[in-house]
């Protein structure tokens, strides 16, 4: 993972996507469209959904939910993990609780979520938070114990302010853990929101996908899936770019 | 600075047991002693990285600078930023810039200002750490083998630099070294540690004033101290 | 396919609620249906009950192996893989499969009128009483939704009620938990609510009855499909199956406890619940061709509001099996 | 996270669980049993399922699937992540593919999974693998770049055999990343298998839970959930114990 | 060992440019030179951690031991295990045990055998690293400031140890140090590096045989070399 031009990077990513499309296309030759439509059919369907205005409409609904849930999980999970991970007993106390929360399948949460948050969109947000929070938490908790004690001692002695220590020692050391969690959670959130909307909501991409599924509109199912995938990968690429540009990202590579 | 009957142990290893010494304020105390005796431990106790189990260390609540035995640089920051790190939120940007440029010049790292620690040689890292320790205006300056890894010429330069700084701000300096000549060149008080728990094997005062100690007529006097110290160290090692 | 074929079907209740949609089941064994053995794929719902009697051998006819489906994917995979000779599915799904080019034909309609509008508010007697109320409907854009909208439209109430959608399980749970007052649900999902709510339960509209008032015919819901090639090659097998299925239905009406007992084991639904559900669904096998006008009326309503529910087109002649 | 007696550890875990049970119990007072049954009712239901022999039967089915999927993901994901993470271009190529695979919701996989693997249990295994693999992959890929180059240089010069380097340098350095991924994936696998079984299979805990849900047997739904949670937390505790006992676990704490 | 016209640069910093020296086989060559000149870089080139851009280094395909400028111990292994690490799969368990116990005794770490690196003092880590470098039977022994952080007595002991080992296995030794006295005490050839790219400022041969160099009549000769070297180093620093 040494430096290289980002132009090359884009080509590599592109070629990966082309490869996948090719595999999909080959596979689609072996099945009828109701089982596995071809990339072209799917794109056509997506286009027509876009023309109807449905695609963007539902996407925005889902996007807002995911962003909200993701941001909360990232913030709270990372901070909680970093703080709790340092104190052995507290960590031991919290850890099984989080494992439990994470093990409970969405289907068992849904009814409570609906009651607490209504059919609007609260439940999907809640489910996505529950799915991603533990990842941020565990990664941060494991990462915090990898922060060099020596550098922290040094910072203390030179009376470096707390927030500078956070920024200049903790953050770069935690970064590989956090960025790993972000990579993982970008994929997971999109996947989870679809399931959650499908189970509990009547708006958003998940709900539309569920509908298409019941109507055996496989190409529409895939069109929605494709939309999610494109948004997901774009998010991931965006994050990567940001991370590479900001100091923290560069920082943690110097090691 | 008075160290009063302190007790400290690493796990089951007793390092200090009811140990007392006096470190004169605004003077340079050198500590000699064989490897693993507890010199670094004493510095860390003074810096409050370790807490004494018993006894008190008076006067360590002041502004402290510590040159660790290892460089302890932030790997993701350049030399300049590493030095800047300990000044952030304390000085204005312009002032910081000036002071850092100045100190980097003095330790001979101007060309490496924007290099990352992994791009530095061993001696350069040490000098970066020295720059960081010297850039503030500490009341207490703790130096753990400051000249390790430097060539003779650099050693002399840093030595000069230390004495200039000491002259200017008059911090209390505790200077750990293995080099008797070095100790004599900077120390006003020289202590030799030995044993477990630590005892002071020998305490010497060098009366020749700092910073210049090369007058011809002093040579014999200093040589005498040096030989005495060397002998003591050999004795200490045998116990 | 090595799917474990499940011969027992365990659940019952659920299924039809799903109108085939949400759940599905597994398998079927496709294996070779020797001369005498047919394989039958059914949701864990009404169409399964006669089949259970057939499998038991209580009625004359060829041997039957049953497997069940819960989710639409399981159904689709089974149909695609041609893993069952006969499969029971909601009519709209059957039409949809046909429209999507899968070689399926409808051979009969056997389940009628399974949807109800219910309320826990004793004041509510007619649709008008629901003005300004919130109603929870299962199967968005599926038959319960479309038909309900149709009735609202007929009564000019379309914009005067608030409709929320969710899954049958959630709606029933909210209903029982007192968080929802009015709901549109299909049987047999509804029978749990029926038996638990007892006195507090008001059946506001029986869709079957309402449909009959509007169009003077029954409301068809589910039927059996067959692979059209298989049917063309073995018309007598279809005949044989239908005949035996009809006998099983007769037996079901004569001794409902018997089928219910079998189903309790097969679908894991309590016997009384099955009997309750049976009382609110009409089980009656009518050959596809005979039921064609009724089905077309039903499909037209679906088509008008949600063409996608039946695959975007009214089924052609080839949809109906004929010898 | 400094050392302490493991007796204390157990008490802490226990108290966490008691706290959760207490919260659940309090919450259950506010809702009718059909929405949220009390812990006692749930346990009663679980007991009766156990007596019928159903609990163990289904659990074993699910357990075997999870174990298989988890083990494969752990092995393949970690090894692939560690190997690919080191080569920038390969990583850039593989990363979007994995993000895509991870973003596709199970519901879109299910139909293919059923067709490929039948109605048995292949599909749930496949879905669990797809859910956990990326976590192992990304954590390993990020971890591999944190392995000290200096220690590797040292090992090379002293001609330490490859497998010893793996064991003594790579593994301890990667361990915080791997063990974090394991903690995360234990929860996720159990959750995912339930969803996957519910959608695609007629055996296993997930299928039974789905059935119970449709029959409005909320206490049975929770009984199954409880079973999963107990098994999940037990796995997690077991892993923790093992990890603390084996050298690698101890190793990576000395830092 | 012949180093033939090698070229190497760190990024844009040219360290060696068509640089050639001869390191006599089975002899000890000491390298002096100011901080950051490229001494460590040369060792790493010989060890093939870095690859030359041009030129060849003949004879570096043999068994190499390297004492790094930093200890580079595995933090998750005890002192004993750290030393054992480089012998694994090479010797039987019993043999390993014997050799390690022996070498740890010689560097004075017997008591710290089962301590982890973070429980050691600076000098102890250095000694652990020395033990690791000395435990094998290398053909080429690369030592980067081996005596740093050790007290006078330990320095002498390690010095003796090195000479004993050298006497026994006769490896080619490249010994980097900043201490002229040290260089004279062990070196058969002494090189002073300077400049960028590196040039050899001065090359000295010490003809007094190893291991003993303290005969009275040699003192003047050695002192002469020492003064010459010191002068050269000061000159080198000024360029
Ligand atoms: N974190 C620790 N845990 C346990 N023991 C320790 C720890 N740090 C130091 N020790 C032990 O305490 C003793 C004194 O260590 P210290 O670092 O003070 O020695 P020192 O005098 O600085 O030696 P050197 O000159 O080698 O740096 C040593 O025997 C060492 O093994
Ligand atoms: N990884 C690296 N990347 C970039 N520059 C480097 C790197 N390593 C060393 N350098 C540069 O190469 C030069 C020589 O470094 P080297 O470590 O060989 O010095 P040295 O002679 O060992 O010095 P010292 O006595 O201080 O250890 C230095 O100027 C240093 O800044
Ligand atoms: Mg020390
Ligand atoms: Mg060097």
UniProtKB/TrEMBL annotation, chains A, D:
Keyword tags: Cell membrane, Membrane, Transmembrane, Transmembrane helix, Transport
Keyword Cell membrane carried by entry: yes
GO BP term, example: transmembrane transport
Predominant localisation class: membrane
Protein's cellular compartments: Cell membrane
Coiled coil: none
Annotated TM spans: 12-31, 66-85, 97-119, 125-145, 166-190, 221-242
Superkingdom of origin: Bacteria
Alphabetized InterPro entries for the sequence: MetI-like, MetI-like_sf
Entry's Gene Ontology cellular component terms: plasma membrane
Domain ABC transmembrane type-1: 59-239
Topology versus the membrane: Multi-pass membrane protein
Statement: the UniProt record of this protein carries the keyword NADP: no
Family of the protein in this entry: Belongs to the binding-protein-dependent transport system permease family.
Listed name of the protein: NitT/TauT family transport system permease protein
From TrEMBL, chains B, E:
Classification via Pfam families: ABC_tran
Gene3D superfamilies from the UniProt entry: P-loop containing nucleotide triphosphate hydrolases (3.40.50.300)
The entry's keywords: ATP-binding, Nucleotide-binding, Translocase, Transport
Statement: the UniProt record of this protein carries the keyword Coiled coil: no
SUPFAM superfamilies hit by this protein: P-loop containing nucleoside triphosphate hydrolases
Gene Ontology MF: a single term: ATP binding
UniProt keyword annotation of Methyltransferase present: no
Matching InterPro entries: AAA+_ATPase, ABC_transporter-like_ATP-bd, ABC_transporter-like_CS, ABC_transporter_ATP-bind, P-loop_NTPase
Ranges where the ABC transporter domain occurs: 1-220
PANTHER family reported in the protein's UniProt record: ALIPHATIC SULFONATES IMPORT ATP-BINDING PROTEIN SSUB, TAURINE IMPORT ATP-BINDING PROTEIN-RELATED
Protein name (database record): NitT/TauT family transport system ATP-binding protein
